[in-house]
């Protein structure tokens, strides 16, 4: 697979782009048929027994080229690109116009402007569930936090003044009993390679890497619930000028993204003291040329 020139973003400055904050990386079992709706035909989906590994990446950045903002990356699944595999984002929701514009034009992401509404409530301590036994077996049980508070994050996609609910994410949070960095887990470095592109704003197929430095610990998976209504309200339905075909396509992509969020969680990792370095995307295939073939 040939790799071409990198893309640059004048608004974000010269790459690599640095993001600092915290995040939750949650892995889900996603139905293969749902994931395939997002992934280009050039790629082979990594799947077993009808499922692939997807989920979401929920981040709160306190410092970035776009300033302070929140981000929800819905991960459809994993595609195979020898000698490794890469994630494919089904939808990226950000509460920053600059971040949305950058993601669309320069990283080839399916970015949308969204509203993140957060509410913290106190909850009673809960006994560890069956999932803890599994984490103990793989050596992560000792880092599993006991929730003392709950944060609800309501994510709504914005289309001008109109808002469409996507999901509600209930996060379990905890506070260390003593002042120590040990509760945040060990310091790690990792790289998350991803493919992007094939969008209206960037039709080329791109590949980019996110290099992460953080302290990581296993936490109870966040509980995700869908929107309270299936269809968005449209007070100006009689004056609608968008074609029904485009509207149906957009709604279908949104609904499939919600399906990914509502799929079965298997593990969640909390990233603290996060520093993420995003490299400039590389053009893997120019869609004006012959289509890419992956064996």
Can you offer a commentary on this structure?
This is Protein NEOXANTHIN-DEFICIENT 1. It comes from Melia azedarach (Chinaberry tree). By secondary structure, this protein is mainly beta. It contains 4 helices and 13 strands. Helices cover 14% and strands 46% of the residues. The chain has a 7-stranded mixed barrel.
Q: What's the short version?
A:
This is Protein NEOXANTHIN-DEFICIENT 1. With 295 residues, the chain is mostly beta strands.
Measured as a percent range, the helix fraction is: 10-25%
Secondary structure category: mainly beta
Strand content: over 45%
CA distance, first residue to last residue: 10 Å
- The topology string of helices and strands comes to EHEEEEHEHEEEEEHEE
- CA-based gyration radius: 19 Å
What's the total number of strands?
Answer: 13
Apparent shape: globular
Helix count equals 4
Largest sheet properties: 7 strands, mixed, barrel
Strand order of the largest sheet: 1-3-4-5-9-10-12
Q: Which parts are unreliable, with pLDDT below 50 for 5 consecutive residues or more?
A: 1-10, 131-145, 175-181, 230-243, 288-295
pLDDT averaged residue by residue: 81
Quaternary structure annotation: single chain
